[in-house]
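ugh ok so i messed up the first submission bc i forgot one of the chains. this is the corrected input, ALL of the components this time, i swear. 578 residues overall. if the numbers dont match what u have on ur side tell me asap before i send this to the collaborators (the ones from the other lab, u know who)
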Amino acid sequence: MSRFKLPVLTSRVWKVWRRNFDVFLKTWHVNFLPSLLEPILYLAAFGLGLGVLITGSVDGGSYLQFIGPGLVAIAVMYGAFFECTYASFVRMYFQKTFDAIVATPVSVEEVIAGELLWGATRAAINASIVLVVVAGFGLVSSMWVLLVPALAFFGGLLFAALAMCFTAIAPDIDFFNFPTFLFITPMFLLSGTFFPLGLLPTPLQVVAFGALPLTHIVNLSRTLILGRTEQLLGFSTELMLALNVLWIVVVTLVFFLLAIMLMKKRLIK
Amino acid sequence: MVSANVLIKAVGLTKKFGDFTAVDSIDFEVYEGECVGFLGPNGAGKTTTVRMIYCFSPLTAGSLRVAGLDVTTQARRIKSIVGVSPQEDNLDPDFTVIKNLQVYARYFDIPKSEATSRALKLLKFFQLEEKRDASIAELSGGMKRRLIIARALLNEPKILLLDEPTTGLDPQGRHIVWDKIRSLRKQGITVILTTHYMDEAAALCDRVLIMENGKIIENGAPQQLIRKYVGQDVLEVEYDEALVATLKSELPDVEVEVWGEQVRVFTKQPHGVFERVAKKFPDKTLTIRNANLEDVFLKLTGRKLDEER
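and heres the new structure output, hopefully the right one now
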């Protein structure tokens, strides 16, 4: 094994991104409608159903207000994770699209980086659609909401990078059942999405904060949309937000490089 | 057409996958304007060699230069002057025929209007104009193959690599592809193709490199190899002891190869020698035909089959 080298990435990365964007535009209605309908269903079910039972304030607001930012964060996770697992795997394994591209001046590293940036873009698009629905329900109460698409992009990059690492080691497409059910579904439920993490025992709070990427995105999403931050583990708001950002930046960087390394190992024979 | 300029030069080129040596220290040169065929049974190392030429597979040892550029350090520049038609279909099923070409051109930094005009010209050349807006799933095997070769020409390459360009095609499909490759050669492009069809190699190549177990075991013009190993005529007949005995006594240099029930007889002597023998066995069904590259190939690589019997 050769020594670790930083990948050389040129603007050709965007040509790979552009290929996926072109396909997305062609099939936009298939991509658009589910993203739009899903949050409406959640908000209806929780607002008109479950929410009626919850009469007190949840973390300083209504329950519906509480889950709005959670749904935006979930859209970030799903958008990027499914794009860079199932969809990237289909392009890599069944369509041989990556093989076709690396016969041109575009390198393997650039193909993977382009895929990751595309996954982040999908996350930003999906999250923005959900945000529009959340706003439509009157659940936005901060001007910082304008930064949500940017948060969704960088949070998306984190999930794209994690997903691509699974793709790099997936022997077949059914393999993705493991990360989906053992990683994504628990996060969907246990990252401060549907109830405040402060309700959990402290050790579980530590796990959620230390090991679940979604926790950090939910927290930032709630801060940007509602203008308030859930206090955890005795951290001040400023420290909490700084740790959220730092966590996302560091973990994204590590997995971005790891994803490229693992995919290179898989693709170059 | 073939110039004295060496365009591709391999020295001690080696590729290993773990313990398995796919390409075993081979040396070869390809001249500008030449059409060179890599022949060999499956697993001989043809595709691996081609993949090293277009910088897909890193070398294990040796050196390989393409147009004076080193494949290990100048991959991007090499890939911009090489066109690749891979063995498997990797057209983009998410796009139409024309969009496949437009998107692929983008990877070479070809501006959009230029890409479209090149794409339309190539579709015309490969008789795919009517399929311009069709999806990839609607194309026949032959059309897909032509589109892959068209795609390989978008960057106007100096070198065209064709990995088994006609495998799986029907006879019409093969002949269209051959015809297009011949026209391309007239335009001066250097072609490297791999195939296990001997008639294809004989029809298209100036020179063939026969590979077996990762090594190049013979190298030369098809006709030259046929004369060297097989001669001019081949006699094929059902095995018969009396006939074989007669052949051996009349033609001292005769070589008899038994392939199951069939006997193939080779001689270096000129045309007409087999006819003399044939007259003595009027009730036998004999076939006398021209020697071809397949005879050479089987002679050179057929040992393994013999051992298995």
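quick check: The two ends of chain A are 13 Å apart (CA to CA). that seems consistent at least. The mean pLDDT of chain A is 91.
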